[in-house]
Amino acid sequence: MSCKVRFAPSPTGRLHVGNVRTALINWLFAKGQGGEFVLRIDDTDLERSTKEYEDGIKEDLSWLGLKWDDTFKQSERFAEYDKATQKLKAEGLLYACYETSEELDRKRKIALSRGRPPVYDRAGLKLTDVEKAKLEAEGRKPHWRFKLSGQPCEWTDLVRGPQSIDTASISDPVLIRADGSYLYTLPSVVDDIDAKITHVVRGEDHVTNSGAQIEIFRALGGTTPQMAHTPLLIGADGQGLSKRLGSLSIQQLGQDGIEPIAIASLLAKIGTSDAVELKDSLETLASEFSFDKIGRAPARFDEKELMGLNAEITHGLTFEDAKERLNALPMGDKATPEFWTLVAENLQKVDDAAVWLPVFFGEIEKVDLEAEDAAFIAGAAEHLPEGAINEDTWKEWTNALKSETGRKGKGLFMPLRLALTGQAHGPQMNKVIALLGREKVLARLG
């Protein structure tokens, strides 16, 4: 099946996990079908849109591996939107309205108080030319609404199945503001027609907009794309995403050391019938993608799952894979293959190695121990076996200490770990002391 999809972010901020999931689903669907993925920059809001954010969006998508086949900016297509506007006006489908926002709000409240739906009453359609001239003489400028048919609008959604929106139950949508600027709806439809978009894939919060958009497609003589509305993300607790998580940017995740394929593996599988597990590539994810697998329940985004996937990647990295990022850390240039092999399995991300670099290549802060533990550590050096330390030394040493002090289990091992590494958890101590060497071990016991 030939398909062409688009991802249409506004350059008013960086990408976050919510809109990246939409981009990813579009990309996976298109590539799985041998189709095209278009990046459309929705920058009609000229005041809030910036080149910096546009570049940032492209950087984020490129970092994730979501390459686009074509891209364009809405700010360069106003002439096309103006043509569509003239066509709709000529056909009587776009009409001028002069109410202020306060007046519209008052109408909505009155309708609700009378038990009626707050649907716009089409007062603008009833205005005579004389009345319009009088309003404009008062300094009012019209906003423009699209006249809906008032009939049910039906389509088969690729996620939600058969859908029907009764356009008599919704207000005629405003397509052009009083200041002459376009809202999202008209430019989006014009672009989809001109770009020959075959599938519109987006969040389910856009379902109610679809009836009006389908009618605009028809009014402009375009072919209505197939639609897929996916459930939105929620937090691991089942509640709506917190403000912090909802705005968790891809840029920040990258800066925090999260791997792109970990993000893609999670976002591609949550909310589907597939298990969440690490995949080797976007191409593999694309080959496994199907709208049939997407459930109707909200998709749960769990940071712990993301960190688990990232840890799996980190554990599999070779020293050469990690070297560049290690070098960016304090003392990272001193890291060795032996160091990386020892600590990697205890890390969730490469940057976590920053905790272990001073342990092996610098100094650590002494941990305050209980008096009995401090006395135990003070005498531990006497029982350290002679000669170079190797991986067998730890067992011989702790057996001697156990016989001498009667300590065992955590009471034996934890004070040693804290004294030698400053950390309560970490790699196996037989390997730790072998890498530390005799001089460092004795110095930290003193």
TrEMBL record:
NCBIfam families: gltX_bact. A motif ('HIGH' region) lies at residues 9-19. Monomer. Residues 4-275 form the Glutamyl/glutaminyl-tRNA synthetase class Ib catalytic domain. Belongs to the class-I aminoacyl-tRNA synthetase family. Glutamate--tRNA ligase type 1 subfamily. It comes from the Bacteria. PANTHER family: GLUTAMATE--TRNA LIGASE, GLUTAMATE--TRNA LIGASE, MITOCHONDRIAL-RELATED. SUPFAM superfamilies: An anticodon-binding domain of class I aminoacyl-tRNA synthetases (SSF48163), Nucleotidylyl transferase (SSF52374). A motif ('KMSKS' region) lies at residues 240-244. This is Glutamate--tRNA ligase. Catalyzes the attachment of glutamate to tRNA(Glu) in a two-step reaction: glutamate is first activated by ATP to form Glu-AMP and then transferred to the acceptor end of tRNA(Glu). Keywords: Aminoacyl-tRNA synthetase, ATP-binding, Cytoplasm, Ligase, Nucleotide-binding, Protein biosynthesis. It catalyses: tRNA(Glu) + L-glutamate + ATP = L-glutamyl-tRNA(Glu) + AMP + diphosphate. It is an enzyme of class 6 (ligase).
